Structure formats: C-alpha cells, structure tokens
Amino acid sequence: MDHLSQDIAQDAGLPGAADRPAERTGAVLPAVGLDRPATEAGCHGGTELSKASARAAGNAELMDRYETDYPKGPHDQPQSMCPAFGSLRVGLRMRRVGTILSGSACCVYGLTFTSHFYGAKRSVGYVPFNSETLVTGKLYEDIVEAVHQMADPDKFDAVIVTNLCVPTASGVPLKMLPRAIDGVRIVGIDVPGFGVPTHAEAKDVLSAAMLAYARQEAMEGPVLPPRDGRIDKPTVTLLGELFPADPVVIGAMLEPMGLAAGPSVPVREWRSLYAALDCAAVAALHPFYTASIREFQAAGRPVIGSAPVGLEGTDAWLKAIGDACNVPTAQVDAARNAMRGAISAALGRNRISGRITLSGYEGSELLVGRLLVELGADLRYVGTACPRTPYNADDAEWLMARGVEVRFRASLEDDLGAFAAFAPDLAIGTTPVVQKAKERATPALYFTNLISARPLMGPAGPASLPGVIASAIANKERFLKMQDFFGDVGHGDAAGIWEDTPQDRSGFRAAYAKSLRKSQNAVDNGESVGC
C-alpha cells in the first residue's frame, strides 16, 4: 500500500518521519497538582471544579478541544453511563489490542464489570493510585512501567492507555508516553466524564486517536494491507457502529456505481485503519464522530452525512456519494432507480400504525425516525443525547418539516416530558423512559437492543421494524390488565413487601435534598467539603 502513504502525505501536507520529534520515554516528571488536594478533583468534586483543575494542571488545550468537538446542550450534559465505557468497548473488540485504565478503583471496577457483561473476553490492565502518587507524579511513572510490561509484540499490535476523571483533572500527561515499545504502538487518551458527554462520543475519541497514529504511519512508509486483501474498486468508509447486515446492504447499493463498502470505523483490528483511510469518501452514518472526521479530512477524504435509510434518504445519499466519488451520472441514476423500486416495494409491504416517541443515545435516532415516518408511523418526538452537527442537519430538517419535534442533547426530563405530552401508543427510548412508560401501562421498547440493533439501510430497513413495533403496540391490553390487577400497590416509597403500612417520609427527602444542594454549591464554589 505504498500509494496510501504517498496519497495521504500529499493531501495532508504533514511532516514525515524525519520531522517528527524523537520518541519520549518515561522520564521523571515534576510533581503535578500540588496546588490542590487530589480528592477535590475528578468525579467527586463537581464538573466545573474538575474542568478548572484539568486546565490548571496543563490540560487546557484538551478541554478546549472537547468543548468544541462535543458541545453540550442547555443542561450540563445528558444523563448517561460513564463515557469511558464507549472507548473501552472499542479497544476490547479489537484484535491484538491491549487496554490499560488509569482512574479511581470504583470507576475501573464498574467499567470492566459492564464491559464483561456486554461480552468482553479479555483482561483490562489497571494502574492504581493514591493521593501521594497522584500529586508527586509517581502515577505517571507507574503508568510507564505498566505500559512497558504489557507491550509484548507477540501479543499486541497496540496498547491503549486511558485516563479517567481524576488523572485527567490532575494533568497526568499521557502524551509523554513512548510512541512505541518493541514495535507495539502506544496510544494514550483522556476520557473524563466532565469533558466527553456520552459513551458514544468516547468511541470517537479513541477512533480518532488511532486514525491519527495510522495516518502518520502511512505517511512514513508502507503499511499492512487488509487481512482479506485490497478491494479492486474505490471504497466508501462507513463511520459508525452498524448492524452486521448493513455494510453488506450498502455494498450492494454501491456496486452499480463501481464502488464498494470499505471498513467500518470503529475498526476491529489495527490494519483496518489504513484501509479506512485509503478510501474515495467517508459516509458519516453516525454524525457525531467529529474528531475522526477531522482525521479523514486531513487525509483529503470527502465526508458525506446522513445515511441510505428509507426512500428519500437513500436516494439523496446515493447522489451525494456519486458526486463525491465522481461517478458518471448514468451509473448513479441506475443505482438510484434500482433502490427507488426496491425500497418503494418494501415500504408498500410493510406499514406501521400508531403514535410513537423515540429517544436514545447511540447517534442513529434521527435515522430511525426517518424510517418510521416513511413506514407510516405517527412520530411526534425524536430525542438524541448526541449533538447537532453538519452531518445530521439534513435529517433534522427532514423530520421537522414533517411535524416531528427534534431535540439534540436531550435530557431524561426532555424525553419524559415528550412521553407525557404526546401520550404515545409506543415509547422507544432508554431504560428509564421504558420503565416510566410501562408504569403508565404504555408499551415500550429499549432503543439500543431492540431497535438500533437491526438492519436499517436500504431495502432491508423497511422490513426490520414493523413486526417488532406492531407486536409491542399490541401488548397495550396486556399492560392494562396488569395495571388493573395490581392497582396502586407497590409504587413510589411503598414499593416492595411490607409487614406494616409504609409511612409518608417525604419530609426527610426534602431535608436531605436541601443538604445535598448546599454541599454541591460549596463544591462548585471551590470550597473543600471532603470526599
């Protein structure tokens, strides 16, 4: 793949190996964070204090970049799981890639537990710390030692080192780690909960860091070809995690235009990064991969938004891809005509009847919304934890033109408010939305596992959703019977089994909430309240 290194170097205009600074090794660093107790920064200290600590510790540039790449909403950020779960999952799914976490023990335990629950089958390295090692810089030396211990070229192509909240807030400098050890690439990233709003965007943090590393390698000389060999057609890299059938469907749509589907990013092994960069265009199917898009643009690759979902979405997407890849008009029109016929037939055979509200945190919510509307659903609301970007603007405009309320950086309160306002026949959403809906005897489906994990692209999309949605809506009578049977037993403070009649303790809750607000205000004002 010599042409890849030349192509990317020419497009990017970046320095070659001779201009790259020499590799840094684990030199002893000056103490970090000595101007404040370590326990006041990070996940226990409040978001604003953590950001201020990170800036004071030398991470101002990182905080500025995250605020630009991942803008938040009117509230602080969506309620979601720890964002580092996203980047951790990306690394754990890659072949011959090791992972080291640096953070509070409780955070590392929760992240690894959740990852193994979701199917991870490998160990995660952990570098513990205490106040002394954190403020004296010894934690960094411990990380360097751990990296050297793990960097076995017989086992790994790369080792990912991730700073969680406290090390990031304290300025532990992963950028000082060696670039490589015995041929094993070392990639350091910071994924603090106070800087990266969602776990979906943390996938972008790691993907972009690896793309940047791979792009530099490609400029320096030959790199490994794909495991299955190079594709003899121009390829379209697919940005975003997809249902396994979707890349196959997209490949079939691209074939009449003389194109092929390239790798999906996040990738499953390091060498796929080179093939992802070696593309004719990038399809930002999930539009929030801002840092990854920046790497592709630095390599001179055009980026196309939206996705081949539904009739109108597929038609517009194929035209945009054809224009970006300079495909002759006749070939583009042939592909568009074929898809119009196939998708129109699929939409005619599959319909949805019912009022729906939709919310989630995967980044594909607007795409699913478009498909639901074309299938006939009375869609009233789409909420996504991800931000508005140039690559989902067309989807948002399309939905709003059809009377759908679209909310970016939606909070749980936004989603529950939409459920209450629109009284849907079906609520599709996150776990707490589903729980609230079922408490109100309304059918509900968890977006991540039951909706987004289905084929959505091209002709396969219209056939994948109506069955599960019709089945769920048909359960309304069952929910009503259950509600009638249980009555008002077992909700709120009276939930569970009791020997005595539960007493109203709302006064205690109000007093505790007031005390909690007072403590939080003290933290936000920089006062020390302990940990």
From TrEMBL:
Q: Name one Pfam family in it.
A: Oxidored_nitro
Q: What is the species of this protein?
A: Pannonibacter tanglangensis
- Ranges in a coiled coil: none
- EC code: 1.3.7.15
* Protein's name according to its UniProt entry: Chlorophyllide a reductase subunit Y
Keyword line: Bacteriochlorophyll biosynthesis, Chlorophyll biosynthesis, Oxidoreductase, Photosynthesis
Which pathway or pathways does this protein act in? Porphyrin-containing compound metabolism; bacteriochlorophyll biosynthesis
Residue ranges occupied by any Nitrogenase/oxidoreductase component domain in the UniProt entry = 82-471
Q: GO annotations under biological process?
A: bacteriochlorophyll biosynthetic process; photosynthesis
Q: Does the keyword field hold Aminoacyl-tRNA synthetase?
A: no
Task: Give the region (Disordered) as residue ranges.
Answer: 1-22
One cellular component (GO) term of this entry = membrane
Q: Does the keyword Plastid apply?
A: no
The record's annotation in InterPro entries points to:
BchY, LIPOR_BchN/ChlN, Nase/OxRdtase_comp1, Protochlorophyllide_Rdtase
